[in-house]
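Chapter review. Work through the record for 3-methyl-2-oxobutanoate hydroxymethyltransferase before attempting the end-of-chapter questions.
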Amino acid sequence: MSTEVTSKRLTVRDIAGRKGGTPVVMLTAYTTPMARMLDPYVDVLLVGDSLGMVLYGLDTTLGVSLDMMIAHGQAVMRGSSKACVIIDMPFGSYQESPEQAFRNAARILCETGAAGVKLEGGVEMAETIAFLTRRGIPVLAHIGLKPQLVHSLGGFRAQGRTEAEIAAILADGRAVAEAGAFAVVVEGTVEPVARALTEDLAIPTIGIGASPHCDGQVLVSEDILGLFGTFTPKFVKRYAELSGLVEEAAKAYADEVRARTFPGPEHCFKSNWSRTADK
Ligand code: KIV
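Structure tokens for 3-methyl-2-oxobutanoate hydroxymethyltransferase:
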């Protein structure tokens, strides 16, 4: 019998067990090369439906399909071996009924091998979350600012500024935790409310534009890398400015092709063949 210890992915139980402990590090990934680069450093790779805006140039996440999420989920699974991979359920794939949600979440897990799904919603999604979790589908809930509700909300704006909003967010947190979510993303929520939620809930809160007191943090990778310039939310910190490097590289390549200095001899396959004059 082999005694070799093989590396294993983090599980949703590992993530749930981080409540109040070492913060959970989560970043988005949509492709194999990005997943490969991030995998050693994060606990969770989120295949977010933000890919609709970041990769496909859509104005909102509403145009993202289940097939898109599955294809990108497969790519991220191929590029990672350690992180727990969670895949967003896109708009329209789970709101109709718990049965619809189960069918589509099962497709996501079966066709990608990911560990769980994320869906937006609090009290109104509690029944669906309970239906999924009781049937073996781990759910990461998403409350506070819910980007799939952009039209009802009238834009992407921070939540928790009125007594009614605060009560709703705290009720949403309690509802998804009771329904069995293993953790909850808290997006765009004023700091004291996100902190209160973290104190109230027995499951980890993962903040994005929320509070440093959350049990973990998530950001969109292209935002922190300076690769997505269309719109930078206040809560994003840029850790690199890669789009400038991409533009410099593209310009240098274009200049060299036009000057015929690329490709050089070192980029060509050698052979002794040469065209002989026609007899
Ligand atoms: O779609 C996404 O990337 C997300 C994160 C920003 C939390 O939901």
